[in-house]
Amino acid sequence: MTGDKAAQTAPVFTGRRWFIPSALLHELDPEAGRSGRRPRRTARDWIVDFACFLLAVLVGLLGAETLSNSHGLPPALVAADQVLGALSCGAIWLRRRWPLGLAVVMTPVSFVSETAGGVAVIALFTLAVHRPFRYVAWVAGAQMVLVPLYFWWRPDPDLPYLASIVLLLVLTAATVGWGMFVRSKRQLMLSLRDRARRAETEARLRAEQAQRLAREAIAREMHDVLAHRLTLLSVHAGALEFRPDAPREEIARAAGVIRESSHEALQDLREIIGVLRAGESDDTGRPQPTLAALDTLAVESREAGMKVTLEQRVTDPGAVPASVGRTAYRIAQEGLTNARKHAPGTEVTVSVTGGPGDGLTVTVRNPAPEGDVPPVPGAGQGLIGLTERATLAGGTLEHGPAAGGGFEVRARLPWG
């Protein structure tokens, strides 16, 4: 079960893997690299590596042309320079596996080979993308130190000595800065995805905990109700057993009570099927609220300073099942609590309508508050619990902005 949940929470990159670098993909989806020691190159990696290879070859060709136009260089030195440049271009394909090693090797190679200059720049950029700044600082510093010696040994015929040094130093600094920017952007993407993943997991866990707590509370309430029903059954069955000569009317009345109590007990049992039992029993002995307690709830809310309008249009309120009345009471109670927190000073309307066979409809509505309301703690866990209650009672609950503004909670509960 744990593996299934982990698989569900893991991000899915199907259809987009080709556009993500293999190193970044390995960080976002660790499962991708478990089949081997290193993640496979994606299509994007091949395109980028081939473009880097072509760029290094182009720079090498330009350097070879410069060498051929130079006079006074021995042919053996020119040939060795071109061989080193060709080998360096081939080493481009190793930049992802050994970015630090390639950059370190290319520092002295680019000093003695003009055709390997493009590979040195690409290796420095790769190092800035894939490794921390301390490695980049050492390699880039070494290359900057060698720049004046390089142009002293091989002066540029088209640029002055100082201008050549400044140009190459600026190019090196720009390469490092660009690579660090790419690295920070990737790290930001990883951080945002990780935060989103953790936020989704925490939200799911909070919702599951709220549902579990609601189930446990309902299980405690149903325990008290079932105990009351079974006690009635036991008392009236015992009376029939010990008074077989009782009048026919009393026997019929006792049988009716037994039948009605059995029916109510079965209804309560249907509600607690699948409900988790609480770890500790509730021994407080408090009477559970019913639909008749709505008047008291409205009076208490008014005494607390709220403007509450209670509308009850229920056919035969005394016949409402205890579990349905209790659920309706909890919905009205939570709706008034939310209105007091999120819309203080507004007039809240609590409407309860319905009858046997038609079901019971409970509506709690409040207009939008005037002015800004300071934020209060709460993340909708109460509404999650109400939805769980209504579902376990066989009904439904909807909540959201009302048509004319404000907020509305509407529940439909069965009454058969």
How is the secondary structure organized here?
Layout: H1 2-9, H2 22-28, H3 43-69, H4 75-90, H5 99-112, H6 117-130, H7 133-153, H8 161-242, H9 248-272, H10 294-303, E1 307-314, H11 322-342, E2 347-355, E3 359-366, H12 381-392, E4 396-401, E5 407-413
Helix pairs in contact: 3-4, 3-6, 5-6, 5-7, 6-8, 7-8, 8-9, 8-12, 11-12
Q: Could you characterize what this model shows?
A:
- The protein is of the alpha+beta class and 416 residues long.
- It has two domains: 2-199, no CATH class; 291-413, Heat Shock Protein 90.
- It contains twelve helices and five strands.
- The protein has helices at residues 2-9, 22-28, 43-69, 75-90, 99-112, 117-130, 133-153, 161-242, 248-272, 294-303, 322-342, 381-392; strands at residues 307-314, 347-355, 359-366, 396-401, 407-413.
- The chain has a five-stranded mixed sheet, with helices on one face.
- A hairpin with a 5-residue loop joins strand 4 and strand 5.
Instruction: Output mean pLDDT.
Output: 76
Number of helices: 12
Strand content: 5-15%
Strand arrangement, major sheet: 1-2-3-5-4
Q: Kindly state the percentage of residues in helix.
A: 55-70%
Report the biggest beta sheet as strand number plus sense, adding barrel if it closes: 5 strands, mixed
What's this entry about, in short?
The protein has 416 residues and is of the alpha+beta class. It has helices at 2-9, 22-28, 43-69, 75-90, 99-112, 117-130, 133-153, 161-242, 248-272, 294-303, 322-342, 381-392, and strands at 307-314, 347-355, 359-366, 396-401, 407-413.
